Amino acid sequence: MSEFLNSRAGTQFLYTCLAAIVLWGLAMVFMREIVDYLGTANGKGVAIALVMANVAGGVSIVYSLLRILDMKDEMLRRRDAERRADYIATHDHLTKLPNRYAFDRCELAPNMRLDDASEPAADAPLATVYAIDLDGFKKVNDLMGHQGGDVLLKEVARRICALAEQDCVFRFGGDEFIAIGRHFSEAKEKRFAELLIQSITRPVRIGSLTAEVGASIGYARLPEHGATLAEVSHVADIALYEAKGRGPNNHVLFEPEMQAKVSRRAKLEGELRRAIDKGSIGAFYQPLVDLRSGDVCGFEALARWKNEDGEFVPPNVFIPLAEEAGLITPLFQQLLRQACEAARSWPEGMGLSFNLSPVQMEDRMLPTRVIGILDEVGFPPERLELEITENALVSDPDLAAHIMDSLSGRGVQIALDDFGTGYSNFSQLARFRFDKIKIDKSFVAACGTDERQEKVIQAMLGLSRSLHAKTTVEGIEDHRQLAHFVSQGCDLGQGYLLGRPMPAEDVLTYLSDRRQVLATG
């Protein structure tokens, strides 16, 4: 009722009622004078008219009061609807935590609870903002479905709220959370981040299964790292990115150098986009040598990029950047087309080996893209070998099997790259058919010096033979390593001793020079 009376409509209603009451009272007080003025002949009719007017006025007032009650109920319903709409707009429907929109409207309340009763240190920040991201959440979703993922998210939200005030915990979407601590000392900031990681990483029971995730945390201080919560949240995200780069279950305090690093990355991403648009990223080719005959049987295409400053950017820098920025597919298509066109000039039967990104193994259209490029260039599928890392098979094994079968069905060779360094297991080798297995160079460096490593290498070679797959040894850099793997019966070798990566125009010269050396030898 008070909301209605304080509104403009309520004020107008009060004035109207007051005017009606005044007029009614004046009519009752001066009724005789009014009758005398209008004349005795019509006095009776005038009196009746006045009485009827008074009755009508009273009925109107009663009706208005009833309408006020109806309007009050309507206003209450509208207020509740507005509150529900505001709650929906500012809260996550799954965890019931405030969302990003609520965070943008958040102000540090003076009575925000501290975690202890002690007075904050004089140099303690007003607030510390923690950006929290779950590590390995996608695997839980893939293995247990979205319902299992939802259970995990609600449990993580509950655990974070158990450590911080609920009004200071936000879910920004997906597996990203924000927590705010107030007046934390430096030691307490670090301790709070450690407690968050310890709590989040505890196993979660989901039905009859148990799920585990990691947590990466970046945090920043108000006002040291920003004048507003939004600014501090932004730099906490930058620290989070740094923490994830250091591996799971890490926490990192923001430092200004991180901002510069992100700026450099953004600059590099812009240059990478322009380079792909211009087609200025090329391929170098490293020889693959038959260890039995010594003949070159093919080349592996390796991406090389010289940026706008004229500097070569390492592939282990720009390939992950292309994956994160969604540029890996156009880069792959561009390089594969370029490599196939170059390989057409090689001696007939000489193969081309090309690496696939794990991200591409999530693309159902990959076989169509590959075969389309081969048909367009006119390069035989039988001469193309695609290298797939073990980690690329983990995310969606069924899709990976479909992609590999589609490519193999068209004659493309499939190689398992960097064997022994990823999520290798026998079930993968039993499920997926590989034409070749590549032994990672990390095993080559220890050959002949580490007995345990030697036994692992022998086991891998024996396994590949039993699966009727050829073996390629990477990273051969000296004659001792070469002699060792020749004696072990390896099929192919690759490394600086056998040939360094070279531009396309040098391949034929390399082959010619090599034939001359062998002929004179």
Automatic annotation (TrEMBL):
<dbReference type="InterPro" id="IPR000160">
    <property type="entry name" value="GGDEF_dom"/>
</dbReference>
<feature type="domain" description="GGDEF">
    <location>
        <begin position="125"/>
        <end position="256"/>
    </location>
</feature>
<dbReference type="InterPro" id="IPR029787">
    <property type="entry name" value="Nucleotide_cyclase"/>
</dbReference>
<feature type="transmembrane region" description="Helical">
    <location>
        <begin position="12"/>
        <end position="31"/>
    </location>
</feature>
<dbReference type="Pfam" id="PF00990">
    <property type="entry name" value="GGDEF"/>
</dbReference>
<keyword id="KW-1133">Transmembrane helix</keyword>
<protein>
    <submittedName>
        <fullName>GGDEF-domain containing protein</fullName>
    </submittedName>
</protein>
<keyword id="KW-0472">Membrane</keyword>
<dbReference type="InterPro" id="IPR035919">
    <property type="entry name" value="EAL_sf"/>
</dbReference>
<feature type="transmembrane region" description="Helical">
    <location>
        <begin position="46"/>
        <end position="69"/>
    </location>
</feature>
<dbReference type="InterPro" id="IPR052155">
    <property type="entry name" value="Biofilm_reg_signaling"/>
</dbReference>
<dbReference type="InterPro" id="IPR001633">
    <property type="entry name" value="EAL_dom"/>
</dbReference>
<dbReference type="Pfam" id="PF00563">
    <property type="entry name" value="EAL"/>
</dbReference>
<feature type="domain" description="EAL">
    <location>
        <begin position="265"/>
        <end position="515"/>
    </location>
</feature>
<dbReference type="InterPro" id="IPR043128">
    <property type="entry name" value="Rev_trsase/Diguanyl_cyclase"/>
</dbReference>
<keyword id="KW-0812">Transmembrane</keyword>
